[in-house]
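We store chain and fold; thus.
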Amino acid sequence: MLSGDPNGEPDWVKAISDGSDQGYFGPDSAVWHVNGGIPVIVAGVRALLMQTLHPGAMAGVHDHSRYASDPIGRLSGTVRWVVTTTFGSTDTVGNETSRVSKLHTRVKGEYQPGNPPETSKAYSAHDEDLIAWVHVVFTDAFLRAHREWGDTIPTDREGESGEDRYVREWAEAGRLMGMTNPPTSVAELERALENFRPVLRADDRVKEALRFLTKPPLPRLARLPYSILVGGAIVTIDPQYREMLGLRKPWWPASFLTRLMLVIIGRTLGTESTSRQRARERISRLAGTSSY
């Protein structure tokens, strides 16, 4: 459903087999470990909830996104970029980044910054502050979901934690989208998120988006599992942001039920995603070619 293809493997996943290098990361990277894990499903929901708090980002979503008419298509587009950047070769990632950049070219308009709102300000999806907000929010979401339901992230540097390694490696994704100085440690990530606090607010547009994100028009069989994942996402959001969003921490054991749901999803999908399999095929082919 999230891949955007009824067979579960669209052409963009198959393209991950192509290329002449292992990509920006690799099988032993923290990025493969985190972004290839099942908790990333909850992280995607959490990131979209948090993203609404920036009035510039919310204006872009409200004015240009098809989330209301095609929620699965909107989500699958985000999934496509994250998965391709994680597992694709540098050429494949370059093509995907160009695709997203072209889509962003038309995303522009005006919004009212400040809290309370001030005079209208022009925005573009290429603005570095908006790129930075999206990168910081997604990085924080991936990390927090993995911290809640994942395992230990391996490190490759003495004195550096696995979480710091992940933030450092995934900073490359921010650079690819045009961010000049992305955070490269958990401490820098937390500071970057805190620096956005004066800009953030929840207005009527945010409330509308939250109503949609928490109860989208999904197929009937997907509604209960999705509601559990939403509850899990809300649990991982810090209280000050939950308060801004007007979201209450679920009274039911959301973290436990989310863990159970992720186990079920993991067993259903298998131990390894098709995108990771495609990446391993590419890297194995390259290893065979070089050894020959």
About this structure: The chain has one domain: 11-283. The CA atoms of residues 13 and 24 lie 17 Å apart.
